[in-house]
Task: structure prediction
Amino acid sequence: MKPYKLPALPFAYNALEPTIDEMTMKVHHDEHHRGYVDKLNDALEPYPDLQKRVEELLASLHTLPVDLKDDVANNAGGHANHSLYWTILTPRSQRGPSGELGSAIASKFGSFEKFQSQFTECAAQHFSNGWAWLASDAHGALSVFATKDHESPISRALTPLLVLDVWEHAYYLKHQNRRAEYIKGFWKIVNWKEVGKRWEDVRTKGATNREWKMTG
Ligand code: MN
Result:
């Protein structure tokens, strides 16, 4: 049996229109994400002892044999990042973070709007294929940054809370070169309840030893 599986989308393919159109969602989930899962299964097939949860793999990339490391970083990262991305999107978005997460964001960035601007700029300016993140360290310190390719914050001992895929495959069919339009739409489909739950986990369990709850 293959250890890694493609998780089902938590919404219909067309549920996030007009920000993410049905065709993009189909190709993104059924082809791109499945590709990372398949390649991860292939890469680790000869190494049963290394078939750990993707989050554990990403936290311990430096321990892998050198000829496996890039393959695992790319495909475990691709699998984990997409699995997380699907869970923080929803057609029934709330206006913004509430409760403890809302307070933490306002305290760190000045206001929710200032946080939004910083995240938007980070996603818009990122030069290559990659991801924009809001993440927390083990002490609850928040940060906004981008990573290249499929690098995960987990490999930096951080817990990802919010993520935006800025690979062209995430938006090009619908928005072409207008990444800013895609980012603007993203704010209307964020699942703040899920992001808030992730923050609650960090606060109660810490960032380094938690149940990541990303993968299906
Ligand atoms: Mn993607």
The two ends are 15 Å apart (CA to CA).
